[in-house]
UniProtKB/TrEMBL annotation, chain A:
<dbReference type="GO" id="GO:0016192">
    <property type="term" value="P:vesicle-mediated transport"/>
</dbReference>
<dbReference type="InterPro" id="IPR026739">
    <property type="entry name" value="AP_beta"/>
</dbReference>
<dbReference type="InterPro" id="IPR012295">
    <property type="entry name" value="TBP_dom_sf"/>
</dbReference>
<dbReference type="Pfam" id="PF09066">
    <property type="entry name" value="B2-adapt-app_C"/>
</dbReference>
<protein>
    <recommendedName>
        <fullName>Beta-adaptin appendage C-terminal subdomain domain-containing protein</fullName>
    </recommendedName>
</protein>
<keyword id="KW-0813">Transport</keyword>
<dbReference type="GO" id="GO:0012505">
    <property type="term" value="C:endomembrane system"/>
</dbReference>
<feature type="domain" description="Beta-adaptin appendage C-terminal subdomain">
    <location>
        <begin position="606"/>
        <end position="727"/>
    </location>
</feature>
<dbReference type="InterPro" id="IPR002553">
    <property type="entry name" value="Clathrin/coatomer_adapt-like_N"/>
</dbReference>
UniProtKB/TrEMBL annotation, chain B:
<dbReference type="InterPro" id="IPR050431">
    <property type="entry name" value="Adaptor_comp_med_subunit"/>
</dbReference>
<keyword id="KW-0472">Membrane</keyword>
<feature type="domain" description="MHD">
    <location>
        <begin position="182"/>
        <end position="442"/>
    </location>
</feature>
<dbReference type="InterPro" id="IPR001392">
    <property type="entry name" value="Clathrin_mu"/>
</dbReference>
<dbReference type="GO" id="GO:0016192">
    <property type="term" value="P:vesicle-mediated transport"/>
</dbReference>
<comment type="similarity">
    <text>Belongs to the adaptor complexes medium subunit family.</text>
</comment>
<keyword id="KW-0653">Protein transport</keyword>
<dbReference type="GO" id="GO:0005905">
    <property type="term" value="C:clathrin-coated pit"/>
</dbReference>
<dbReference type="InterPro" id="IPR022775">
    <property type="entry name" value="AP_mu_sigma_su"/>
</dbReference>
Length: 727, 481
């Protein structure tokens, strides 16, 4: 028996194809060709049959023609010489009285993708532009784009471009849209098709004639247009209002995109447009296609960044159905967290608790961390649920709950008592390293509140040899030293054992270096150690940031209606930062170009380290290691509009120029200060420890605020204080 | 802009591959399949990326329909296009399955060629496409004696000609043109419902989504008029008629529908194009016009041997003439449950423990209205603790209810005008398909795992699939000239 795709199959097919009896019987001929195409789409290499198929091309049977063209277009690039034989048949077909045959021939002529055939194709294409059948013109217009991309470095034919521009007035809407597409490709280097006032108005007037695909294309291209007056702008907007509430999600999304780009200077209009699409977007969330539901959900998340209250009363639309796939459930959970308010918190938490025991582990984790995030505002109810979940005694749930509690305590230190009593005794269930990492952090920081901590740590220390995770070992070191500071008598012995093991036997550099660091630190005295290790156990200033301030629309409008929001983790959530201690938590990176420009200018003479950023803890450690030689510098800078930025965007902007934020005061307090740090690049070694460490304080005393309100001038005076240390 | 389109079977077989722009190699097909099979649960599989190639895919009919594209493309457009493509293939091939795609690959290549040129969508309207598509569909449906039984002795009409099998609407649209097939119109009223009922029996959430679909097999398009209930009202304030109002919150229509008679007479006028289209969609939330079709009364306790006893009483509140079919209750149980023993009230029911989904599935093929069924499940749960009660529930119930709509929407008549030469058959089918009731037997206080702690809800979800035994009934109205 021959294998599929073996030489035998191809040989058999060739024999049948060249059999004159078969060739004379139309039905048998067509069926044989069908077999060839079937083999081709199954991945068999049938390119050897090219010359037989070229012969089969000369037929009156349109179905057979179409089949042969499918074959030829797939293999033409492998056989450029033989393809020349086809071109005659194709050119003859271009004269056929049947418009369907003409368009078919023209389309496939351009689909052969052979630069050597260009000279034969140009003439039929030119004729095709003036054909009386719309379907031929459609093909011819796009044919020019294909031709241009075949020979990108050749000159653009001005006559063709003019012809295409004039075809924008073609009675057939698809020809018009195809012209836009073709010009967009041909003139790519000049920035695409010229969008001036007459063209824009022409396109807008004919928008209704197009089908939804054409409308989307026109709306997308119009994004480049800038209206000349406000009156014109509002005329366009009112014309587009119908499309904005279109029942077709693609049209609605394309219109909103256009709205946002036209109204980039008028935030109020943009917000009104967001309100207007609420209905269509919610309808898309109930679309029968799951993929469409998912797309709508991802875009709703974007909208919520600027209008947090947009979907408030519709929270029930985001409850998960039993049979929904995990990726929809997780997005819905993320949206639900954003919609919490005093009225619905009880219902929402009840619903979320149901998801915590989901069969899909990652959905369960998402639900648990969602409860944790709600807990920043409604801690009592959430802690009750989380504690209840610990009672299930299931590995993955316990681990996720402990991580969530760790994140919660970092923001709301007042929860520590409840958390400490809850996590007691759950170390046996936690198997994964992230969960143990979180547990150790909690035990170290709140060691004095839990009576059994020394025993728990002792179990960990006894098992340290078999511990695989570096992170857990380092956290264990820190936790033990911290516990030693508050309960020295119980901990001294095990700390000694742990340090001995880590310094003498541990092979991982990070762990042994950290152990050495603590060892030397303890040599310096207990007070020094306390200063280093017990300074920060929470960051209440983060708590203020939970009810996120509404972002301006232009922070996300450039990714609206692209694939970007659908990518995993595209909408950053803090729930994603599982693992590591909360000090390592990073904020939402949001590019803010104006700010980074000003700042990079003032730092121009320095070259900052591009290597992975130091964590605040590492920085503190390094800073305290070096006591001698430092430079002190104070500078007053006038910064326009900087005070309007949220702390996150400031931080994100700083991170772009490799400056990390250590701490900042809550917004709207005076004096407002931010502590920044960074280190310079060292040319000789990649080790960051040998660069210059820079600690900065950004101080805003607020005196100018009064002045600003008087003068209507948006200027604040900032004081930079820099301390630099060279190692 | 679409770079390539391909269709893969769920096993990864290449069924269709079409490269529109010649920018990426065909190895992306295998790459896609590797990526999609390597997915862990938490990654959204709709969009995936490999270097510059972005894959967008939808799953329909057990197949992957994939388009590759660039990052700045509108996901709404691509997904809508892929859905539209599946609808076209379904119209032209009769049904969507690996087999029908394999048998009709030439037709699908032809379709793709006409629908997309150089990665730009040209048209997806079946009215335009029918002029270009030449290949005939190969129907995968085996020859059926049922078709013959419609023809009575000496051509006399039999009783059976009043109903058509549910598969009648799954033939390709174009075979009718050449084989002189029947001119038929099928109208489907489908409602899906989601109901959540809290532990105290209070309705917590109710959502109904409904649609009217028309599938048209008439080669020449004539105007069609669909009459809905005259009491049909939209929005909270509007009330019509004297009887019980049929009310929905929101309602949207297909672009081709003319609504000039809708406000006064509730008549939809349209010229259907060949194939399937959704004529009207409507939603109703937070307010059920009638009681949920099923009620669950669960009791859960532990016996002395440490086993978990679940006693479920399920009542069907439908009128006695109706019945729920394919009723299935899924009861999540504690992790590590090992064995299940069951006592069911009738032999046609079945129940099994599915360890991977951690649930007991109780199936009832047919459940007549006004009756009550009960089941007793005994589960061995090693290491059962009071906290394990948290894991029991929510119970979800899924079912199909033929010939019933939750909102009460009816089709009064279906008229074709002007009068068609030759016979044109009109078929109407109602389905409210199952509410997937989700009775949650939920967590109780950990000290007392006895039954006062029930927290249950109902998720109702109504689908209408093609495999059900709901028959099409001929529209009863007469033609008026």
């Amino acid at each position: 028996m021959p294998y599929i795709g073996s030489e035998d199959t191809v040989r058999d097919l060739r024999r049948v194809l060249s059999n004159p009896n078969v060739q004379s019987d139309q039905l048998r001929y067509r069926n044989t060709i069908l077999k060839v195409i079937r083999a081709m789409s199954q991945g068999v290499d049938v390119s050897g049959l090219f010359s037989e198929m070229v012969k089969a091309c000369a037929t009156v049977d349109i179905v057979q023609k179409k089949l042969v063209y499918v074959f030829l277009c797939s293999y033409a690039t492998l056989n450029p010489e033989l393809s020349l034989l086809v071109i005659n048949t194709l050119r003859k077909d271009c004269q056929d009285p049947n418009p369907m045959v003409r368009s078919l021939a023209l389309r496939n002529m351009t689909n052969l993708r052979l630069p050597s055939l260009v000279e034969y194709v140009e003439q039929p294409l030119t004729a095709g532009l003036r054909d009386r059948a719309a379907c031929v013109r459609r093909v011819a217009v796009l044919g020019w784009a294909k031709l241009h991309n075949l020979q990108t470095n050749s000159e653009i034919d001005a006559a063709v471009v003019n012809e295409l521009y004039s075809l924008l007035r073609d009675p057939d809407p698809v020809v018009m849209v195809n012209c836009l597409r073709a010009l967009e490709e041909i003139l790519r280097e000049e920035g695409g098709v010229a969008i001036n006032k007459p063209i824009t108005h022409h396109l807008l007037n004919r928008l209704k004639e197009c089908d939804i695909w054409g409308q989307c294309e026109v709306l997308r291209i119009l994004q480049r247009y800038r209206p000349q007056s406000e009156d014109e702008l509002f005329n366009i907007l009112s014309l587009l209002d119908v499309s904005l509430i279109s029942p077709h999600p693609p049209v609605m999304a394309a219109t909103l995109s256009l709205f946002l780009s036209l109204c980039s200077g008028l935030p109020a209009v943009g917000l009104a447009a967001l309100e207007r699409v609420r209905g269509p977007l919610l309808a898309a969330c109930g679309n029968t296609s799951r993929e469409m539901q998912f797309t709508a959900l991802c875009h709703i998340q974007l909208l919520l960044r600027s209008l947090p209250g947009l979907m408030g009363e519709h929270y029930k639309r985001f409850f998960c159905g039993y049979a929904e796939p995990a990726y929809i459930k997780q997005r819905k959970i993320e949206v639900l967290v954003e919609l919490v308010n005093d009225d619905n918190v009880a219902i929402l938490l009840d619903e979320l608790r149901g998801y915590c025991t989901d069969v899909n582990i990652s959905t369960a984790h998402a639900a648990i961390s969602a409860i944790g995030r709600i807990g920043r505002s409604y801690s009592d109810k959430c802690l009750e649920i989380l504690t209840e979940l610990l009672g299930l005694k299931q590995e993955h749930i316990t681990s996720a709950v402990v991580q969530t509690m760790r994140d919660l305590v970092w923001v709301c230190p007042q929860c520590s008592r409840t958390v400490c009593s809850a996590v007691e005794g759950c170390e046996a269930e936690i198997q994964d390293s992230q969960g143990r990492h979180a547990l150790l952090w909690l035990l170290g920081v709140y060691g004095e509140q839990v009576s059994s901590v020394p025993y728990t740590l002792e179990v960990f220390i006894d098992g340290v040899r078999s511990e695989a995770s570096v992170g857990v070992k380092m956290e264990l070191l820190t936790a033990t030293v911290r516990l030693f500071l508050c309960r020295p008598a119980e901990t001294q012995d095990m700390l000694g054992r742990l340090l001995h093991y880590c310094i003498e036997e541990e092979t991982n550099m990070c762990v042994s270096d950290q152990a050495l660091l603590y060892y030397r630190l303890l040599h310096c005295g207990i007070e020094e150690t306390r200063k280093v290790l017990q300074c920060r156990r929470s960051d209440p200033s983060l708590g203020v940031l939970i009810g996120r301030p509404a972002e301006p629309i232009n922070q996300w409008s450039y990714i609206f209606n692209t694939l970007e929001p659908l990518r995993p983790g595209a909408i950053e959530t803090e729930s994603a930062t599982i693992g590591g201690s909360p000090e390592h938590m990073t904020f939402d990176p949001k590019p803010n170009n104006d700010l980074s420009d000003t700042l990079s200018y003032s730092f121009a003479p320095l070259s900052l380290s591009l290597s992975p950023a130091l964590s605040p803890e590492e920085f503190e450690d390094l800073w305290l290691q070096q006591q001698e030689n430092y430079v002190y510098m104070e500078e007053h800078v006038q910064c326009p509009t900087i005070f309007r930025c949220s702390p996150q965007s400031l931080q994100a902007a700083m991170q772009l120029v490799n400056i990390q934020t250590l701490a900042f005061t809550p917004p709207h307090t005076l004096p407002w200060r931010v502590y920044l740090y960074t280190n310079t690049q060292n040319k000789h070694s990649a080790d960051t420890c040998h660069g210059t460490l820079i600690l900065g304080e950004l101080l805003y005393t607020g005196e100018e605020i009064q002045k600003k309100s008087k003068d209507e001038e948006n200027v604040g005076v900032f004081t930079y204080i820099f301390l630099a240390r060279r190692n | 802009m679409i770079s390539q389109v391909f269709i893969l079977s769920s096993q990864g077989d290449h069924l269709i591959y079409k490269d529109f722009r010649g920018e990426a190699g065909s190895d992306v097909v295998n790459l896609f399949y590797e990526k999609v099979t390597a997915l862990t649960g938490d990654q959204p599989p709709v969009v995936m990326r490999h270097k510059d190639v972005h894959f967008v895919h939808v799953r329909q009919g057990g197949l992957y329909w994939v388009a590759t594209t660039t990052a700045d493309t509108s996901p709404f457009t691509i997904i809508e296009f892929l859905n539209r493509l599946t609808a076209l293939v379904k119209d032209y091939c009769g049904s969507l399955s690996e087999r029908s795609v394999q048998m009709n690959f030439a037709l699908i290549y032809e379709l793709l060629d006409e629908v997309v040129d150089y990665g730009y969508i040209q048209t997806t309207s079946s009215d335009i496409l029918k002029n270009f598509i030449q290949t005939e569909a190969v129907s995968s449906k085996p020859f059926s004696l049922f078709d013959l039984s419609n023809v009575g002795l000496f051509g006399a009409e039999t009783q059976q000609s009043k109903v058509a099998p549910s598969s009648a609407a799954t033939r390709p649209i174009q075979s009718s043109r050449d084989q002189g097939g029947k001119s038929e119109i099928f109208v489907d009223v489908i409602e899906r419902m989601l109901v959540v009922i809290g532990s105290n029996g209070v309705l917590m959430k109710a959502d109904i989504e409904g649609e009217i679909k028309v599938k048209c097999y008439m080669p020449t398009c004539s105007e069609m008029r669909i009459g809905l209930n005259e009491e049909f009202s939209i929005g909270k304030s509007q009330l019509r008629g004297y009887g019980a109002a049929v009310r929905v919150d929101e309602c949207s229509f297909h672009q081709a529908v003319r609504l000039d008679e809708f406000d006064s007479l509730r008549i939809l006028r349209l010229c259907p194009s060949q194939g399937e289209q959704t004529v009207m969609q409507y939603q109703l939330s937070d307010d059920l016009p009638s009681a949920p079709p099923f009620r669950l009364f669960p009791t859960i306790e532990r016996d002395n041997g440490g086993r978990l006893l679940m006693y479920m009483k399920l009542r069907c509140d439908l009128p006695p003439k109706s019945a729920g079919i394919n009723v299935s209750a899924t009861i999540p149980v504690p992790k590590g449950s090992v064995s299940l023993s069951q006592e069911l009230s009738s032999p046609d029911q079945s129940a099994e423990l599915q360890p991977q989904s951690r649930a007991v599935v109780w199936k009832i093929p047919r459940f007549p209205g006004g009756t009550q069924l009960s089941a007793l499940f005994k589960l061995e749960v090693p290491g059962f603790s009071s906290a394990s009660m948290l894991e029991v529930g929510p119970v979800s119930l899924s079912f199909e209810l033929p010939k019933i709509t939750a909102t009460g929407l009816q089709i009064r008549f279906l008229r074709l005008s002007p009068f068609q030469p030759g016979p044109a058959q009109r078929w109407v089918r109602f389905g409210m398909r199952t509410f997937d009731s989700d009775h949650e037997v939920g967590p109780g206080p950990s000290e007392d795992p006895v039954q006062d702690c029930f927290h249950w809800w109902i998720h109702c979800l109504l689908y209408l699939s093609q495999q059900d035994d709901v028959c099409w009934t001929e529209s009863v109205c007469c033609l008026t000239s």
